[in-house]
């Protein structure tokens, strides 16, 4: 059964983003995949978005790169009003805007669902999710759910990338890579230390948010002067294939409960192994000894990097294709849509063997 789906994206970045931005990138890939399957999609996003869907926006430029915007909430309120005005047109509304819409979507009497893209271990969130415990929500990893087990979880859908977005690289650049934000939880400092101990140069492609500028000045800036460190700033999709494809490995030494970690599957799409700390979603995304190494501390990461050639880049690419394409992601979302619309699902949702919830929760607690 073909559906008319509304996708409601945050307005902080365009869809897809020009540079950094995970949520808006996933909305873009999901929208295109749904359209490719014959569904109709209306996208509520910033006006500088590029999409095959019908685009609805009152804001010409996404907020983060728009200095004229001083109050982001004002624009999101307008966006929600536009969604409400057109709600009768859609079979289902898919929100990607956290809990902002909860009071509104309660009143719409329209099937809807929310993918939660961020961390859920913040102290204020239980108040919201207990008050709106009837709201259907989707996780992007089983680990993400742990702080809010009482929420109405109607599905878990891992992120996916277009199959042909990246191609397998040779890993012949002689360096290791780090992509992300320069922030305390991403631990660029540990990535720099791991690379130094293993004897590799490290190339860092990262943005520095205003909220993290003090941390950068105090804890990171001086590390960029080390001879093995090369900072290249933010990069977009057009540059990621070469950057990740030439890297010997991606270092992902996170120090927080990562909800998913899109960069891990970007690396896998390039055939590049990931060395990641055992936090959050990592054991659900990385198959230890196949697509990367899951480690506990710096010393294990250094040892893993010294043994990185034991992993087969072609096999890593195969893992990506079997688990993390946008086509698989769209199929899993469609099963949730049909369930919420009262249709009988066409088939069970796709859980690859390495992604079974029981296995992953056991790994995470190990």
UniProtKB/TrEMBL annotation:
<feature type="domain" description="Glycosyl transferase family 1">
    <location>
        <begin position="172"/>
        <end position="306"/>
    </location>
</feature>
<dbReference type="InterPro" id="IPR001296">
    <property type="entry name" value="Glyco_trans_1"/>
</dbReference>
<protein>
    <submittedName>
        <fullName>Glycosyltransferase involved in cell wall bisynthesis</fullName>
    </submittedName>
</protein>
<dbReference type="Pfam" id="PF00534">
    <property type="entry name" value="Glycos_transf_1"/>
</dbReference>
<feature type="domain" description="Glycosyltransferase subfamily 4-like N-terminal">
    <location>
        <begin position="20"/>
        <end position="138"/>
    </location>
</feature>
<dbReference type="InterPro" id="IPR028098">
    <property type="entry name" value="Glyco_trans_4-like_N"/>
</dbReference>
<dbReference type="GO" id="GO:0016757">
    <property type="term" value="F:glycosyltransferase activity"/>
</dbReference>
<dbReference type="Pfam" id="PF13439">
    <property type="entry name" value="Glyco_transf_4"/>
</dbReference>
<keyword id="KW-0808">Transferase</keyword>
